[in-house]
Write a structure and sequence with these properties.
The chain contains ten helices and 18 strands. The chain is of the alpha+beta class. Belongs to the peptidase M24B family.
């Protein structure tokens, strides 16, 4: 089980009811589309229906008790019974995940308990990755790197952005990815000035930049990486933009260390871009963490005073986007450790001209 001691120290509840699919996966390692997970400092109870009960029984090997919802008994009635059995008075809930309707239902069904919002506490605990999580993220990233290396042999003038996306997503699956971490971004030519461009039927032409932001999912955990390559010789302005972004990213990674704030990491990248006259064209933050979600805490932005601590992850992805000209983004995934910061991304970053 995850760090329940820290979680309950922070949230102050007697028990926590986990409703979201992703947090049930986080705390149990079991993927399901329905269920309630009741957590206490020393006990975990998973409530589910017959669709998952047989598979969920494997959780008992981890010390998680599994309860099946009986015919004629509502899920919330069993939930209330479990909370009473464990003597809970205050019950935490995921205020960061529930819809208004879900919260109102929970409030009604658990009226006899005092409800405490604990979503931020769950997110804090999730920001620190254990050895198993790091291993899964490393695997997801290795899938992503392998797919990119193979894709370089495929990209050519005459393909559309959609063609490239299809090839890339095929290679992610072929190399062991179990799904996409997020919707794949592929942009070419002038479309590269749009940081989150959707792939279109635009044809890649000689001299075009092609920016690809993509990631695999492995056992529920994400990877994330961006590379910009050129199909044929780029114009001088785009070559300059590429070199500035690369310098900025390398400066950020070289200066990254445990204990620095997200603001500090962002500034190491941003100051290089500013010094080269492109400050107004770097329009997003430098990075974010990931795990089960593609965007998690902590963040690397000019607004973040949150420190980057050991066993947290952070992307480093500066970019320059000039409308009517094009854009470049380069992204690596970093693992923060006490004594060093490890770059989990192995793909080439020096300018690639296909």
């Amino acid at each position: 089980m995850k760090d329940l001691k820290t979680l309950f120290q922070r949230c102050g509840a007697d028990a926590l009811v986990v409703i979201s699919d992703k947090n049930r996966l986080y705390f149990t390692g079991f993927a399901s589309t329905f269920g309630y997970l009741v957590l206490t400092k020393d006990k975990s109870i998973f409530i589910t229906d017959p669709r998952y009960f047989e598979m969920a029984q494997s959780l008992e090997e981890k010390g998680i008790e599994v309860r099946q919802i009986a015919n004629g008994v509502s899920a919330t009635a069993l939930l209330v019974s479990v909370l009473k059995d464990i003597g809970a008075k205050t019950v935490g809930y995921e205020d960061t995940e529930l819809t208004v309707n879900q919260f109102q239902t929970l409030q009604k069904e658990l009226a006899e308990f005092t409800l405490l919002p604990c979503g931020g506490d769950v997110n804090y605990v999730r920001s620190f990755k254990d050895e198993e999580e790091i291993s899964l993220i490393r695997k997801a990233q290795s899938v992503t790197d392998a797919a990119f290396k193979q894709l370089l042999k495929v990209i050519r003038a005459g393909m559309t952005e959609i063609d490239i996306r299809v090839e890339l997503e095929y290679l992610l699956a072929k190399n062991g990815g179990e799904g996409l971490a997020f919707d794949t971004i592929v942009a070419s030519g002038v479309n590269t000035s749009k940081p989150h461009a959707h792939p279109t039927d635009k044809v890649v032409e000689n001299g075009d930049a092609v920016t690809m932001d993509f990631g695999a999912r492995y056992h529920g955990y994400c990877s994330d990486m961006t590379r910009t390559v050129f199909v044929g010789e780029p114009v001088a302005e785009m070559r300059k933009i590429y070199n500035v972004v690369l310098m900025a990213q390398r400066n950020g990674i070289a200066n990254a260390h445990c204990g620095m704030t997200g603001r500090e990491l962002d500034s190491y990248c941003r100051e290089v871009i500013k010094a080269n006259g492109y400050e107004k064209y770097f329009t997003h933050s430098t990075g974010h963490s990931l795990g089960i979600d593609i965007h998690e805490e902590p963040r690397a932005s000019m607004y973040s005073d949150q420190p980057l601590l050991a066993n947290q992850l952070i992307t480093c992805e500066p970019g320059i986007y000039v409308p009517g000209v094009g854009g470049v983004r380069i992204e690596d995934l970093l693992l923060v450790q006490e004594e060093e910061v490890i770059d989990l991304t192995t793909s080439e970053k020096d300018i690639i001209i296909l």
